[in-house]
Structure prediction request, 380 residues.
Amino acid sequence: MAARTIEAGPVREWAVHLPSRAQLHPFRRRLLAWFRRRRRNLPWRSTRDPYRIWISEIMLQQTRVAAALPYYRRFLQRFPSVQALARAPLEAVLRAWSGLGYYNRARNLHRAAKELLRRHNGKFPRDPGSAQALPGVGRYTAAAVLSIAYGAPLAVLDGNVVRVLARLGAVRGELRAPARWRRLEQAAQELLAPDAPGVWNQAMMELGAMVCTPRTPRCGECPLADWCRARQLGQVERFPAKRRRPSQRKVTLAVAVVVDPHGRTLLLRPEHPQACRFFAGLWQFPAVEIHRDARAELRRHLRQILPETGAAVQLDPLPPVEHAVTRHAITLRPFLLRMAVLPRIRHSAAARLGGLERRAISNATRKIAAAARRILTAER
Ligand code: SF4
Prediction:
């Protein structure tokens, strides 16, 4: 198929090869027809309500569709409108997000909902500048919401779309380098179907998610194979170039699961001055980063926050738990500390170990609670 090259800059590898102008029409038609036949039936695809689309776009950042689906349904049941979200306490929003990770997404949603009420009469703004001024809404999210909900002619560029473009156009080099990314945004914009921008964006994302996958793309099923430069070169596996990911820092935390005879445990609020930063700013067990002797360092830490625990406090080890958050590979070393009466300290609460799900807790806390429950159940 005829191709053209845009923005072939001074560095040859920055070229983005696109279908020729004459080929744009069949190119778009082929992808849209494929999307009509093959698209997954997802709840955010059956609405043009900007609120629902916005929630789905935020949830799907860094989260797989299958993992996001139950959260999406529950979240919308709990907060069916911008008004409901804005008026809910942050704690309730974090609880609904609990387990999904990257909690700043939920905090930003909550702040943005308040701003929508305050400045936009509860409506998602139609112009990209105002949309991008909302907390947590960047260029991608604004383009996705505005194109799908309002039909705005704005192309999205996310991880799936950029992979498709890199292969279609045989784009070499680090795609996220700012200049190259801008050229890819321009390429995405040129390909956008002007009469159906929202559907087009979803079709490109779907192609990246289902066919042009990171490993072993299914080129035999690809509606765009005739225009794919990487395929023509026989070098699909070379595109896009592998990203250099920052290495993860290893961290070990000692964690105290303080329990009383009634199955209650002590949780710290994120405002507690000794709250540990690896628990996403949510309710957490007392914990401290350790370097040598987990038990001794945890004892020392507990003496600071729970003065009534003496030097000889008994800490029974629970099985270690592995956990990863963005740049950190965390080994959690939990210990059970049994006390007749839970200490009462500021910025803390007693909660049933079996009912922690009712609070905003991170997956790390969830895993530790499960380990503690297994041991305590086996002892009965
Ligand atoms: S032909 Fe293969 S590599 Fe090219 S866009 Fe389609 S799935 Fe991706």
About this structure: The pocket of iron/sulfur cluster is lined by residues 164, 167-168, 211-212, 217, 219, 222, 224-225, 228, 230-231, 236 (CB under 6 Å). Residues 6-14 have pLDDT under 50 and may be disordered.
